[in-house]
């Protein structure tokens, strides 16, 4: 499997490595004899502002050094990694093709179809496809997802891994990986989450992404420019900190006594309003007028009082995602630290799960 593949599968040991604007996250999973997932390792190494911008690695040496530190500190011996590209740099499209085609015939058909949707030469892109299953609308045909990204975007991630002594074997799309991990959590909801409309909201540093799901189907997706970095900015303005000081204090919890009332509560209120606004866009763009659950992920998701305020604004039950819920915890994991950081690991967990995906 080469790094140009966006839907790779692996059975050998595999690290999930999620490179985001704010940090790099690592997850390694295994299975016990009964087939239950075991969390062997996880860790986060923060980045400074500007190291990653719009999905591009702007400070390559600094990102490599931070990733090396994370891999070394984790103690893993695994060299193969699954990584992901931001959805913003990947073109995805569902198409319908005749059933019964050979792999080579599928490739030819996919390339022909891709020419219609990709605004640059196929020589410049990493292109892959995945047969989802029988077409729901056309008997005898199959539904296929095409994914394409410019080669330099894939090569950036590939180069980062190789500079850290790792071997990239799977290149995914961030939102696909997060959905894979979220499906485990949805399956643990009442009734196994069957027919439930789920709003999965990942709150990143600079932006937030909402995916609305039902029975493994993506109903709606929206990005909003609002994230945890705005809390850092509010801290800096309120107390005269530099951005770096504010970020450090936010991570360590060493904050002024009036922080909760002066900074945290207004930010939680603003974030809840953004989530409410995103849901309203979903309702006005689709036949739906409610969701059954709101699942929050990302480093900002665990803020005190956030789930309660979101429920007050939306009238829908809200909870924070722990992608490791129901897994066995290996000896190499500091469980209390992991539980605090768990919402940040959704995408990295999904990447690590590619080892077992079929």
TrEMBL record:
Q: Name one Pfam family in it.
A: PilM_2
Q: Which domain of life is it from?
A: Bacteria
Listed InterPro entries: ATPase_NBD, FtsA/MreB, PilM
Which Gene3D superfamilies does the entry mention? 3.30.1490.300, 3.30.420.40
NCBIfam families per the record?
pilM
Q: What is this protein called?
A: Pilus assembly protein PilM
The protein's organism comes out as: Ottowia oryzae
Q: What is the lineage of its organism?
A: Bacteria, Pseudomonadati, Pseudomonadota, Betaproteobacteria, Burkholderiales
